Every structure is written in C-alpha cells, then in structure tokens.
Amino acid sequence: MIRWRRGEVVRVRREWPGAVELDVTTEDGEARALAYPALVGRPEPGDVVLLNTTALAMGLGTGGYAMVVAVPDRLPQDPQGPGHLVKARYTPLQATVLGADEQDSPFHEVLRDADSVDGMPVIVADLHSALPAILCGLYGQHPPEPGKSADEHPSEGGETPGGRGRPVRVAYVMLDGGALPAWFSMSCARLRETGWLCGVVTAGQAFGGDVEVVTPHTGLLAARHVLRADVAIVTQGPGNLGSGTRWGFSGVSAGEAVNAAAVLGGRPVAALRVSEGDLRERHIGVSHHSLTAYGRVALAPAQVAVPVLPGDFGRRVAEQSRPLAARHELVEVPVDGLYEALRGSPVRLSTMGRGLDEDLAYFLASAAAGRHAASLLP
C-alpha cells in the first residue's frame, strides 16, 4: 500500500504558502519531493527524510511527488494554542486544527445558529482546475487589482461584477474528494495572493485553508458569515479520482454540494465539465461526471450554465445537457469575450495536462458559470 524510502535533501526547488518542493536522493535515484512544513517541519539541504514514494512510483500526474512524512533528526515543535478538530483522522499524519465551528473558535457563536447563506450564488464544479476559469468568467474584464485583497480595493467607483459599488468577495470551499491539504494547490496560493479569492475554506477531511470546518454545509456558512463572501465556489481539491464507472468518481460531491447550497438558501450554479480535447469518449462534450452528479445526485434544482459554443460541438453540448432540464434550469450563456478573460488568468490554466488552447471548451464552460453567477449579484 505504501512504498517507503529514506532520502536526503539535495536542494530546495521552490516553495509557496504551505508547501516546499525539494530534490531528494534515494536508493532509486534523484526525485522530486513535497513537504508541508506545518505537518513535518521545513526540510533543509542535507536533512535525512522519510518518504512515501507511492504516487511517484505510480507515475501520477497531479500528485507525482515523493511525499515527506518526517524529518526524523529534526522534528518540529509541538503545536501551540487551541484547536481540537482532527483531520486526516486515524491516519499516521492526523492533525489538529482550529475549526471555525468548534467551541474554542471566535466564530463559534456566529456559526452555532447560522442556517442560511442569504441567497449567495454558489458555483459548483467537478474539477479543481475549473476554479481559476470560473473566476475569470466571474470577474470578466474587471479582475481585482494585483496585490490587493478585496478589503483593500476602493469601496466606490469603477466597474465590478454585477455592477456593484465595491469589488466582489469570492471564497473557495474545498471539498475532500481530491487532495486533502489545500497547501498542495499552487493556484489557491496565487489566487489568494492576487486578491482573486478572499479566502479558502477546507471542509470535511481537507485541511490547510484560511478557515477549517467540519462539513461542506458549515463551509458555505463560513464563506458567507466568516469570510463575508458574496460568491462561493465549491470544488474538490486537486487530484480527481475516477474509475471509468457511472458512480465511481470523487466528483459525485458536486451533486451533494448543490444540495447543500440549496438547503442553506443559496443559489446553486452548476458548471458543466465539457471537453473537446479529452481522448476518452465518456468525457467528450458534456462529461458523464456532470450528467451523474447533477442529473442523479443533486436532488435540489440548480441553474446549469450551458455555454453557447460554436458549430457541431456546441450543438452536441446543448443536446447532451437537455436531460438535466428535468430537474434544473438550463441557462444558455454566451462565451464571447471569455477567451480574452481566460488569457488574463493570474495562474496557469491546465486540466488533465491540457492548457487553454488544447481544451478551450473546458475552460469556456467553467468561465460561463462564473459569468452567469456575476449576473445574479445585486
């Protein structure tokens, strides 16, 4: 189940908030490794490290790192302060965090009786790679000013999504179907840094966000009442798991997120997973993941953003989306101008190894959901 190796750190390659990428040598040769300093401390060149090389040996794309499990000769200090919420429970790396919804949290009183997100648009997508594309569509030609958070933008003047007098605040609620540490996502780190996100909420077994919560429901409530978000985007973390079967994929959580948004008084907006570049027939046009998650798992109605794509492929997407109308409202969203907006993304756009021009339809469909959500803002 686990391939264990001892290694020695050769160099630090790069780092971003919450993660350090390393070159290490093992008995198998040199490899890339990833460490989360909050869990294991910060490895330095010359340190001996204990590694889990399973993903590396399997050749996984998204998660193809040797993972640092421990720096045995230089253990980190014990954590200080409150926090009784255990995540990655009953695994060797279970960690305690301060949950926004637990009794020791300063937000416990806010969340204890919270029962509504007050009509907040909640954009739901299957893959983590949809996150920046959704934001591109949401902001359109008026993204946040680089280097400023939503709080630092002027409160009056200028064009903003929905014609608001202040910049829109967008929170990301990360589900636990993919990567558990939010630190794995370089996109999240960059989107926070540039002010495109006002915060990251990690729900369920996921951890490492600005706000920790127990469930997707408290994740949405925290996005609204702790981070004061105007819009929430819900996807799993990087590393979607699929088995090529109707029900055996981690993205079924997209349907459950629609239900959570609806029961809390939100306005669910479903982003379709669309591809023209995937070689697998089940993902060409509208992916079977979207048809199952929204058509079978989601019991509450959502507005499904159907991108108006050109030619025969566009007609295929419209036709494949039609069965979803039995439960949901299908909203046709024009895609004119979205390519230019996507080119302005502050992070690299990539899905399953394909970039913007290699699978344009995927990114346009995600951006279309963001564009529609912007139209719902007061």
Description:
- The strands form 5 sheets. The chain has an 8-stranded parallel β-sheet with strand order 11-10-9-12-8-13-16-17, with helices on both faces.
- It is built from 11 helices and 19 strands.
- Strand 18 and strand 19 form a beta hairpin.
- Helix content is 25%, strand content 24%.
- About 2% of the residues have low confidence.
- It has 2 domains: 67 residues, OB fold (Dihydrolipoamide Acetyltransferase, E2P); 268 residues, no CATH class.
CA-based gyration radius: 21 Å
Mean pLDDT: 92
Identify low-pLDDT runs.
Answer: 152-159
Can you count the beta strands? 19
Shape assignment: globular
The major pleated sheet works out as:
8 strands, parallel
Helix content: 25-40%
| Percent range for β-strand residues | 15-25%
Give the terminus-to-terminus CA distance.
51 Å
SSE series: EEEHEHEEEHEHEHEEHEHEEEHEHEHEEH
- The largest sheet has its strands arranged as 11-10-9-12-8-13-16-17
Structural class: alpha/beta
Number of domains: 2
